[in-house]
Amino acid sequence: MTETTPGTPRESGPLTRVQKTLFIQDNTYALVNPAAPPERFTDPVETGVVAITHRGGIAASVTCGTHIGDIRITTETWPTTPPIADEPWEDIAEISLPWPGGRMVLWSSDDDEPDEITLYEHAEPGSYRIRAHVRGRDLGEDRTEDDTPEEHLLQIWPAKPDQPNTLKTTDRTGAYWRSQHG
């Protein structure tokens, strides 16, 4: 189910908000320009959640605990820096994405027919900030039909480039990736 809620530029809420179940393959999904996706995504060794890829195309990839299966995802675009979501998220990280311009979509990593959520029909060239909130990654492939699905919230907004920032670190999946740094 996809729910798109267009908004108007205002300080109190997002410009757009989309909720969807996204099919994941290879523990990853990414923000890409579908006309020029990278061949391979970068592992999130610095934040444990999200990383920038510059190989063969620019993308921001987000790592899931689910190897193959569905996750619940909400995407929000904002005109300026949004508040951090109130809900109990396990890991939260931010990263800057240098964007050359063009369509920006969230894309599952299924090579045959990727799921897609359009974030911007035409994102202006420049820098965007991405804040990824995650929970439920640690169950990974041990998740049963009775367990709550893995959930993600991505907030995206235009912003000056800045260093990656890890705002919350409590899940084992993120700890594993951060231990690979260095």
Automatic annotation (TrEMBL):
<protein>
    <recommendedName>
        <fullName>Phage tail protein</fullName>
    </recommendedName>
</protein>
<feature type="region of interest" description="Disordered">
    <location>
        <begin position="159"/>
        <end position="182"/>
    </location>
</feature>
